[in-house]
Amino acid sequence: MLRARRFRQPEAIRGAERQAHGRGRASSLAMLFPVVLALILASGILWSAGCSKRDDSANNGSSSSTTSRSKQTGDVQGQIGKTLAVGDVRVTVNALEATLNPSLPSQRISEQAPTPPAANESFYQAFVRVENLGGTPVRVDGQDFYCLVGNSPHAIDVTRSGPEARSLLPRTSVDLLLTFRGPAGFEPVLLYRPPWYDGTIRVAQPVEATPTTT
């Protein structure tokens, strides 16, 4: 019997097919290159936008946290009965005087029983209004007030002072009754050192002009 002879392609034809196959792969890679490049560019744009958004958020956060602080700095002098403007906050000390029978606020900072004064000790009371005219809350705490008696500052008596600390919302105010203990016989000066102000607010009785004689 005659066996079928296996047909073999000429070498030239096989070479042409390999070249065509290679050109096909090169063409496919050439078509994929723009797609890959576009994906890389898009990823870079998204990453840059994300970083920019995080930076903007950080900047906005830092600016919002500082808006509650007054741009004004340094010690401020005020008089009893006159409103003192400190940034967006208004502070009015309506009275500051020595007393043997101090009043009690409707809401005290401490509910412990008040104790009587010691020998040669007096009470000093201040009636203060704090008003927030700004756009962000302001922390108001009676324990940020001190009474300068002689040359010594005295903290408030929390059993005779109130109300408790609070965040004062924009366009609102709070009235504080502050009681201090100190040596008797001195002219008191009220000191206020709030966390939102870089300095001391000092309020005293107005200095009376001494009449001159000719």
Description:
The strands form three sheets. The protein has a five-stranded mixed beta sheet, with no helix packed on it. The N and C termini lie far apart (158 Å). The chain is globular and about 100 Å long. β6 (145-149) and β7 form a beta hairpin. The protein has one helix spanning 11-66; strands spanning 76-79, 83-86, 89-99, 121-132, 138-140, 145-149, 152-155, 166-168, 172-183, 189-192, 201-204. The model is unreliable at 51-68 (pLDDT under 50). The protein is an alpha+beta fold. It folds into two domains: 12-66; 76-204, Sandwich (Immunoglobulin-like), CATH 2.60.40. It contains one helix and eleven strands. The chain is 26% helix and 31% strand.
Summarize the structure.
This protein has 214 residues and is of the alpha+beta class. The protein contains one helix and eleven strands. The chain folds into two domains: 55 residues; 129 residues, Immunoglobulin-like (Sandwich).
Topology of helices and strands:
Layout: H1 11-66, E1 76-79, E2 83-86, E3 89-99, E4 121-132, E5 138-140, E6 145-149, E7 152-155, E8 166-168, E9 172-183, E10 189-192, E11 201-204
Parallel strand pairs: 1-11
Antiparallel strand pairs: 2-3, 3-4, 4-9, 5-8, 6-7, 6-10, 10-11
Q: Briefly, what CATH class of the largest domain? A: Mainly Beta
Distance between the termini: 158 Å
- Bin the strand percentage: 25-35%
The number of domains is 2
Oligomer: single chain
Q: Give the helix proportion (percent range).
A: 25-40%
- Report on the biggest sheet: 5 strands, mixed
Give me the CATH fold name of the largest domain.
Immunoglobulin-like
Mean pLDDT level: 79
Structure classification: alpha+beta
**Total helical elements:** 1
Number of DSSP strand runs? 11
The helix-strand sequence is HEEEEEEEEEEE
